[in-house]
Amino acid sequence: MNHLEIAHVGKSFGETNVLHDISFSVKEGEFVALLGPSGSGKSTLFRIIGGISWPSQGTVNLNGDDITGKRGSISYTPQSSSLMPWRTILDNVLLGQEIAGKRDVERALQMIERAGLKGFEKSYPHELSGGMQQRASFIRSILSPQPLILLDEPFSALDEFTRLDMQKWLLSIWSEYKRSILFVTHNIEEAIFLADRIIVLSARPATVKKEFIIPFPRPREEGILLTDAFLQWKKRIYQEMREQ
Amino acid sequence: MRTIFQKGWRPALVLILLFIVWEICANIFDIPKWLLPAPSQVIAEAISGWSVYSGHLASTIKLIITGFIIGSSIGIIVAIGLHLVPFLRQAFYPLLIISQNIPTIVLAPLLVIWFGFGMLPKIIVITLVCFFPITIALLDGFRQTNRDLMHYMQMAGGSKQQIFWKLEWPHALPSLFSGLKISATYSVMGAVISEWLGASKGIGVYMTLASSSFRTDRVFVAIFLIVILSLLFFAIIIALEKRLIKWKPLEEGNGNESS
Questions:
Q1: Where are the transmembrane segments (chain B) (predicted)?
Q2: Domain extents for chain B?
């Protein structure tokens, strides 16, 4: 059964067509990367999936239910600074559950420890490094009751080394908790390293240009980043994105 | 305390120098006391006249606190109302700004005609000068709510109430405090102005009595009392802010200013 199903979604603001006939799906427990140039309407697409914006055409389905324009069905992690500065890390991590109704402090503490943030439960976000903040906001998504996690370029503000660590950490957490993830990025390498499937979007109006299934077995080690097969994939996707 | 001392010694030094120059001038040019008393005379009056003005001072402090609490509560309620109901904001925001163009000093006699010489017209005057900075600051704070966090709350299915209490309100707290700081000093001024209009007690009354009997030294005592009260209320708000807003990163370069 398909988990998330985007069918023929289009969006235009007046004369400008931002999204054009976008269809794809994310299966249960699957890691899908949306790859597109900056300004290709990815955030518009996210707003539609998150239900805070209506598409001009098309529908969004989750587990067979129509969630077009319906909020609270997915868990969203924005690009940066998505933690509330006035909440401690523990309270931040529990926010998703709080909105849905019930707090599970026990589990949150476990997850915080698992993410290497033990000792920071009572700290405020500004006391943490960028990578630690991203880890905390990702834990918040995992703890939220929603089955699908949307990640909007979560590592784009991090330096290269922290980013690789974070990618590996994300993969390990994901393989343990098996949530469906829709990951937006404009970094080809990141998309290949993380995803089961890559959906390449074109520039305005955004439309699905091509879909690639990434065959690398899991668990993936950082060693594959330098293999020939990996570079071949990078080349293929790069050429696909270059073609107009 | 250390930072206050490190930051404060320069203006304190200037102030002391100013007083010394004033004192010397008053002595050299032999300025009569009723025209410009020397600082030493003002200080002497402030100490010996304590029993004269202590009653006035207590009454003014009471008025300021009551007025400030009522004024800021109204300011907060108005801001929340205007923020949550867009129609009200469109209808009332311009009127709010117009209301601030009417000088309080003009409005005050009217209030006395309508409400007499009791507490009520005075509290209305303080409320009028107090609520505006708070409403404007708080509305600004609400408006500047972080958009990423807003999207997060909305997509997570947060209700309007949850979004307000978990996101918009805490986000606007620093703005609220900048409004409160302005209002705290305004409320002191508002209290003194309202006392000029007719009261039996208060620093404003003490000041009018002193000036009409050419007790210039007492006028200066009143001025210093007003300044001290303003600073005191300002400091109380800052202390409250520090207690409530722990998350704000410390200001950079506090301890090692060199230029």
A1: 12-29, 63-85, 92-117, 123-142, 219-240
A2: 54-244
